[in-house]
Structures are given as C-alpha cells and as structure tokens.
Amino acid sequence: MTQPAPRATVNPHPELAAYSEHEAALNRRLWCRQMLAGEDVPLLHDWMQRPHVSEFWEMAWPQDWIADYLVRQLEDPARTPYLGFVDDTPVGYVEVYDPAGDVLGAHAPILPGDLGAHVLIGEEEYLGRYSVALGRAVVRFLFKRPEVRRIVGEPDVRNHNFLSLLAFLGFKKHSEIDLPDKRAAFMVCERADFERLASRRRRTLS
C-alpha cells in the first residue's frame, strides 16, 4: 500500500514577524511573515494541490512553476506575499497587492486608499473555528497601514464559504465582475465598518 507523501514543513522564523497578535478565545498566537523564496516553495506547492484550494486558485502546478510564481510576487513592488501562522504552525497564505495596478483595477471601481488581498487557509483543520479569528487578524494587519481606507477582493462567486466569512468580517458585495479567469464578487471592507463591527463585538463580550 502506497504511503501518502509527507506534508511540507517550514522554519517559522518568528524573528521575521510582520504582524502578531494573541487570540484570547483560542489562546493562540496569530502572526505572519513575508514568504521566503526557495524555503517556503514546497509548502505553498503542497497547499496548491489540495482540493479545497485548487478548486478556486487553479494553481495545482509543478513545484518549479510555484517557485517562479513566488519569485515574481517577491520582486513586484506592488505585491507582498505572506505566510500566516498559528503559534509555530503555518496555516495560510496572504498575497497583498495594489489593486490599481492589478487586473482588478481594469474591472472594478478602485479608489485611492484601496488595498487588495488574496487569502487561503491551506491546512484543512484550520478551516473551522479558526477561520474567523484568522480572517480578523488579516484585516487588522492590513488596516495597520494608516493610508488604507478600504480592503478589496475578488473571490470566485462559487466560493460561498469564503464569501460568508468575508460578510461576517464586515465586507460588502459591491458587484459581480467578469475577470479573465472567473466570475468574481467584488468585495469591499471599509475601515470604519470594520472598526464599528469590532467595537460592537468587544462590547458584547465584555
């Protein structure tokens, strides 16, 4: 009987953290660092092969293609790829980008102060109760940039679970748009809406 291939692992490199917070409800540290070319490629390649990721990312490519893709993200001044962790376990990928210079900018009403993000949770066991906490951490991380007024995204309209999560986080569906590779929902999270929602939840929990 053929044994499954071992899952890829990475060195956390906590000294490279770009953002970190303690999630009290889970008693876990949620944090991220920038992706490292070469070192993180096997893990990203592993995640891209998994059915729950490949269905919507459509990047179940050979590992050398993933390596080239990651290098392009790291070399592009308008994009930054991050690896997200729960404690020392890598769980997801976040690709932050300037939507004005992206394909999204040609299909949606992008405004000054907009910041785009592609997000995936690669480890299936973190798709449940961790999803909301991880989503909030990503949004807080992006809004730490004082110039950012809105976070925008363009998930596949078929990705109902992700769209429901975004709505819970404070995103609103602006419209549906046709991108070269998919029918997408143009999702927008206003800084004021996110902060108001976060404040309301803090009052409810206190």
From TrEMBL:
Superkingdom of the source species: Bacteria
SMART domains: AlcB
Annotated GO MF terms: N-acyltransferase activity
InterPro entries the record matches: Acyl_CoA_acyltransferase (IPR016181), Acyltransferase_MbtK/IucB-like (IPR019432)
The UniProt record lists the keyword Transport: no
Keywords, in A-Z order: Acyltransferase, Transferase
Pfam families in alphabetical order: Acetyltransf_8
GO biological process, one term: siderophore biosynthetic process
SUPFAM superfamilies: Acyl-CoA N-acyltransferases (Nat) (SSF55729)
Location of the Acyltransferase MbtK/IucB-like conserved domain: 33-80
Pathway: Siderophore biosynthesis
Physiological role: Acyltransferase required for the direct transfer of medium- to long-chain fatty acyl moieties from a carrier protein (MbtL) on to the epsilon-amino group of lysine residue in the mycobactin core.
Protein name: Lysine N-acyltransferase MbtK
Encoding gene per record: iucB_1
